[in-house]
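Sanity check

After download, print the first record. It should look like this:
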Amino acid sequence: MSFQYPQFLWALSLVIIPILIHLFNLQRYKTLYFSDLTLLKSIQIESKKRSRVKNFLLLLCRILLVSLLVIAFCKPISNPLNSSQGLTSQRIGIYLDNSYSMSSTNDSQSLLEIAKSDAIHLINSCSNETRFYVLTNDKSTNKGYSLDKEQAKSHIQNTTFTSANMELNQLVLNQNEQFKSNPVYSYWFTDLQKNQFNHDAKLQITDSSQFLVSLYQSDNMYNISIDSIWFKEKDRKILVEDEVFIKITNWNDKRSEIQLKLIINESEIITQKLVSLEKFQEKTVTIKYILKTHGVKMGELYINDVSYNDLKYDDKLIFTYSTNDQYKVNYLYLDSNFNEYAFKSLFNTLNEVSFESVNISDGFNENDIDGNLIILDEIESIPTSIYQQFKDQHIVLIPPPYYKSLESTNLFLQSYGLSLNRKPIASYTLSEKNLLSPFFKNVFKDLDQNIDLPKFKTTYEIKSANNVRSLMGYENDDDFLVETIQNNKTLYLFNSSFHPENSNITSHAIFVPTFLKIKENTSINQDLYYLTNHVKPIKIRQDLRSTKIIISNQNNKFSIHPTTKLVNGSPTLYLNGVLEKEGLYYIKKEDSVIKTISLNSNRRESELQSFQFNDFTSLLEKYDQNSFFKLVRSNKMDDNREYFTLQSQKDYWIYFIVLALIFIILEIIIIKYYEKPV
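Expected structure tokens:
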């Protein structure tokens, strides 16, 4: 047994008060003279004995009364962990759910504030020897060691909302790691959202663990969320009407009207749209605008009026993109190539394209071949050293002329499950059906009925061990252009040389739309934003051999050196788990910004669906885990405090109060039993 408030034990000294009262109330007997003292002497002896007993009993009652009241106010306790499990010091785990769903309110107070108050009350109710393991969803603030009472309370008080959340199975694993499999009670202060429970993952609970869960629920479940945004086309162009698509969800059981506001670069574009949402409706809306300038664009989309919205974090979404991201084309050829001029003339007219010709007859640096698109034009001998590198890039392969060897080409195509075989020399004409194919969708509007399409003297037969998609063909239905995808990278294979002696395709009008469509299909799909804890690796088209990359936020209060690895010659940044706070981040090479990215909170918390007491109990029973959990169904702070106090310790103060009352009653009985009280 110990005392929760041992500082009040000094009050035991107050027992001197009844002692002093007793001493001062002692009276001297007066001597009276009578003629016959025989009877009086016997009465005197009997009265003295009774007075001594009475006085002693009253003194004892009063001393015990004061002592019991003092001990009751010191709150004597005993902890079941210390007694039954034989621990030398009590160990308690605390999980404080600080996900955004805990920002919803109950009685005008956020669930997080209520939970923090309850957690601090639990800490205060424990002995000074207790060690605490505090766990939140924010990994960056969690301690890897136990805390004393003051440290634990400080950690709880300083906890703020985070976009991260934790599945229950991961929570149990994390706490098991903290406890090192030692017996411990763990207290969860959470709203226990349904999305926290992974039905496919079993809770790895040790037999010594015990989880006490306080369920918090909002009295206002109203929420509308901005879920995602995207553009229809990959490329962002100026002076062309652009259209952004926005998915929003009304999570409520009543119809709502909201106003969406879109801002680009603070003031360059400001537009609004009124949106009506039926109850529980998921809706995609569009906002159109026209950009007038190139450069990096920072967009902000939010619900203009959120006064009615209980959950605020998902009312806003930020994104970034660029209108002049360079699309790089590496054009590889041999001496005396006649097609270079046609390709250069085509791609150099596009502002967003960087075109680089490489004559591999003179050799080349493999690290310099880093384009979004690699065009291998009539190369008889493809260097085997770059086979693996090309697999990570989009490839256009134009075979060598008919009279040259196919050995190297087929060796390269082998990894794609393709090969080329010579066909008899004849006249091959492209089919008019190509112009209506899905490959040229939205390209040709008015077609000439007698259009003259390119002709070829020699072609190759394309043999495939895998499925390939035919994009263009000849009048005899043979394939002219096919595509195959491997590791999310596309190989475009033509079956004929573009040499002027073999074909007129480079001077034909169809040449331009063909390669523009290839460029469009292989363009970088810009990531408008990332979600916290879901940041995929980012490739940087920069030479980083002599410098380091720094990532910082807008106000430069946060900066890190991210992990950088070379993947097939391209520097790649790994940021998942590094960036946890939403906002804009700048990727810098020295002091120069090379890329801007935006980070938004994961929308997992938007659906405010929490387990009810009975639902979660039934679920635990289904997975045979019910014996490890005790739940609090009440959302009232006082009820929670009482529950956790009772669970963390056994109180004895009430027994001392009862005993004190008993001694008061005994004192009254003693006083009334005797004819004359002391």
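If your output differs, re-run the checksum step. Summary of this record's structure: The radius of gyration is 41 Å.
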